[in-house]
Amino acid sequence: MSEDTLLKSMAPRTHIRQGVELGFAVGLRLMRTLCGPKWAPNVLLIQTTPASPLSTYKKLPGVLPRFNAAENTIVFAADWLTRPVSDSDPELRRLMQQQLQSLDNVYRDEIPDWVTQLIRGLLAQGDATLYIIASHLGLGARTLQQALQ
């Protein structure tokens, strides 16, 4: 049974559980795409209770998830991080890095305007703190401070 089959077979459950299991399915598929078919997690830790009987999860390739965990985590051997990406294309990588760098530059140029808008909107609520503004921008507080210097 594949991750897709598991997701399709689930009866309507809470949105949180569906989101978590969808996130795992996407993460597992992404890792297999990047690392190749031999990649497998060592452990899957899932915060929620099972959406289906455990027998359903035993049909999945790889490892049986551990439910009611403290956090949602995919654990795998660290040596996978040092291996080359399967089917990688050096020219495509160079082009993607170039595009990401240009997007990063545009993003950083717009941060002051976004901060100004957020401050205006959050002042009325009394929530215009560095940490809240940084969170709205998807940044850490220190990163935001550095971007505004």
Describe the structure.
- This protein is mainly alpha-helical.
- It has 2 domains: 3-82, no CATH class; 90-148, no CATH class.
- It has helices at residues 3-9, 15-35, 54-58, 90-123, 130-136, 141-148; strands spanning 43-45, 73-75.
- The radius of gyration is 21 Å and the shape is flat.
- The model is unreliable at 3-13 (pLDDT under 50).
Secondary-structure-based class equals: mainly alpha
Q: Give the strand content.
A: under 5%
Sheet bearing the most strands, described? 2 strands, antiparallel
Helix run count: 6
Q: What overall form do the CA principal axes indicate?
A: flat
Ranges where pLDDT stays below 50 over 5 or more residues in a row are 3-13
Helix fraction by DSSP (H/I, runs of at least 4)? 55-70%
Largest beta sheet: strand ordering: 1-2
Distance between the termini: 52 Å
Number of strands: 2
Count of individual domains: 2
CA gyration radius, whole angstroms: 21 Å
Taking all residues together, what is the mean pLDDT? 80
The H-and-E topology, N to C, reads as HHEHEHHH
Protein name: HTH-type transcriptional regulator AraC-type N-terminal domain-containing protein
Keywords: DNA-binding
GO molecular function, one term: transcription cis-regulatory region binding
Domain HTH-type transcriptional regulator AraC-type N-terminal: 16-85
Keywords for this entry:
149 residues, mainly alpha, two-stranded antiparallel ribbon, 6 helices, 4% strand, flat, disordered N terminus, DNA-binding transcription factor activity, AraC-type_N, DNA-binding
